[in-house]
Structures are given as structure tokens and as C-alpha cells.
């Protein structure tokens, strides 16, 4: 196929290519850019077109592949947009260090609250916390199963009240 024939076929399909580009991008400017890139690649690779095959399908395939590659490239870029005033989050990078001091303090206070419970409810509660089953606790302490369950319930309720007094409603769901 001669250069003149190739160019005339490309020009005759430009309207369809523009429409297809707009359907892919849903943006006029992006569609123009996609058409331009497609025309450029078609012209630079005209020697790869085989006469006797569907020229329109060849152009549409080029356009679709360019669109897919650009989409994947944009998705891979993984752009981070920081809307804070001082761009703290962008500048902080991966250098943030996790600090468990707050949770360590809370656990220390919680253990202090557990220690302040009466032994009759503290011992079954601690055994349950350590993973013992209700029946195992009942056998170990030589108590009825119902008594063990109720003492663990009373320990939980007492701890919940202590936590509410010290921290308010905010921490109740997290601590118990």
C-alpha cells in the first residue's frame, strides 16, 4: 500500500477514530490525545500493516491497546494526594515509627484494676482470660459451673464500671 493510499484511508476513518477515542476516555481532550497517539503509531508502523487485512480494525486495535496501556500506567503510578495544609503526610514518607506506649499504659492500668477485684471473682476471671474453659475452672476451683460463669460475668461487669469511671464511655468498647 502506498503512502498516499495509507494517508487517505487514515483520514477517511478519522471521524470514527475520534468517536471511539471519546467513548474510551469520556473526555474531549484525552480523546484528542488518544487519536493523535494512534495516528502517530499507525504512520510510524505503516510497514507492519498487511495489505488485504482490515485497516479499520488494525487502527481500532492500536487505539484500544494505547488506551489500555495508559490506563494501566496511571493505575500503577499510585498517586498520593495530601490535602493537609503543611503536606505533613507526603513529607513523612515511610519513616513513621509505631509506638505502643499508649496501649502499654492502658494494659498496665487494666491489670491494676483486675488486681483490685475480690479474689472470689478475680481468680475465675484470670483463669478464663488465660484460656481455661468454664468446666476446667469449675473442676479446678471445686465450684459449680453456674457459679463460675456468674463470677466471670460479675468480674467483667465490675471491670467495665471501673473503666467507665476512669476513662468515660469512649474506651469501654475497646477495653472489655
From TrEMBL:
Q: Which residue windows are coiled coil?
A: none
UniProt keyword terms in alphabetical order: Sigma factor, Transcription, Transcription regulation
UniProt domain RNA polymerase sigma-70 region: residue ranges: 13-75
The residue ranges of the RNA polymerase sigma factor 70 region 4 type domain are 109-159
One of its Pfam families is Sigma70_r4_2
* GO MF: DNA binding; sigma factor activity
Keyword Transcription on entry: yes
Gene Ontology annotations of biological process type: DNA-templated transcription initiation
Q: Which family does it belong to?
A: Belongs to the sigma-70 factor family. ECF subfamily.
NCBIfam families, A to Z: sigma70-ECF
Supply the name of the protein: RNA polymerase sigma factor
Organism lineage string: Bacteria, Pseudomonadati, Bacteroidota, Saprospiria, Saprospirales
